[in-house]
Specification:
3 helices, mainly alpha
Length: about 90
């Protein structure tokens, strides 16, 4: 245990205070800021963005998902096919 001395002073913040930016009325009235305030958010960030046609985007994503599954199956099956061909041709294991 240490002796009864004065409590240490907290370290002073070495960084200078940043000046406040002036308000931007255009940013305040932007659709994202209005939606954020309606939801009780502090900042005008709303995840997801503004997709003009979400149904078309979903159709495209479903098509990409099908292509992804097809590519995975082709890659896996090609390994088996190449292995079988190598075995039939007598390549060493």
């Amino acid at each position: 245990m240490t002796g009864g001395g004065a409590a240490p002073k907290p370290a002073a913040d070495a960084s200078p205070e940043t000046p406040a930016l002036p308000p931007d009325p255009d940013a305040y009235d932007s659709p994202r800021a209005v939606q954020a305030r309606a939801r009780g958010l502090d900042a005008p960030y709303i995840a997801g963005g503004e997709d003009p046609d979400p149904e078309a985007t979903r159709r495209q994503e479903r098509r990409y998902r099908r292509w992804l599954i097809v590519m995975i199956v082709v890659i896996i099956l090609s390994g088996f096919v190449l292995g079988a061909i190598a075995r039939l041709l007598g390549f060493p294991a």
